[in-house]
Fold this sequence. Notes:
The complex is a heterodimer.
Chain A: E1 2-4, E2 10-12, H1 29-58, H2 66-72, H3 76-104, H4 108-135
Antiparallel strand pairs in A: 1-2
Chain B: H1 17-49, H2 51-58, H3 64-92, H4 100-128
Helix pairs in contact in B: 1-2, 1-3, 3-4
Amino acid sequence: xxxxxxxxxxxxxxxxxxxxxxxxxxxxxxxxxxxxxxxxxxxxxxxxxxxxxxxxxxxxxxxxxxxxxxxxxxxxxxxxxxxxxxxxxxxxxxxxxxxxxxxxxxxxxxxxxxxxxxxxxxxxxxxxxxxxxxxxx
Amino acid sequence: xxxxxxxxxxxxxxxxxxxxxxxxxxxxxxxxxxxxxxxxxxxxxxxxxxxxxxxxxxxxxxxxxxxxxxxxxxxxxxxxxxxxxxxxxxxxxxxxxxxxxxxxxxxxxxxxxxxxxxxxxxxxxxxxxxxxx
Lengths: 137, 133
């Protein structure tokens, strides 16, 4: 059940009566991080499963050699597909790793150190992967 | 001894049952896929150094050990995908959380239903014996 407030926003109706003019809470970084995980996750279900089906089920993995990649990347739309998969999967995975670090690495110094290593490594690999997809001829 | 001094030591353990197992499975499968992604960026990028080097390294993915690894990757991807959809459903539909266990059963069923035939296709060259010949 939802109620519509005077500002037109929908919010859950609370038994006992919520304040009539309850404001929508401010959206901080973690709200957007939660939202990004849901949206990128749903897109990735499609991108990752299509990619896996093409390279492991429809074609055998040994057939996906350099000639196979060259033929596929002849079409810029496949480059866009692969780059989208790279970018979304890496960001989605990185955010998941960030949540895990916050859960399990309790010491502030270690937490900062582990994050620095993970962010730097992922950043370098993202740049390297992007370079590969864009410059391959 | 005072009452406060003899307070029993409590060691709280969260027992979330099916939802907690789904959480553990989601973390573990997500971490495995992420680690594979990092490796995969490196192996694909070899193609820009030399196509021969790419082919040489890439041929390794055809051996039995790495094929089993690919079957594992498929199961991790499928579980993470279906369980991710379950998480979105629980967030979006108020009724979904009441059917949480049934939803998790569906996740496990779909993972097995897609993973077993997919795994068979990946292992088929080995099963047929063409991999060794």
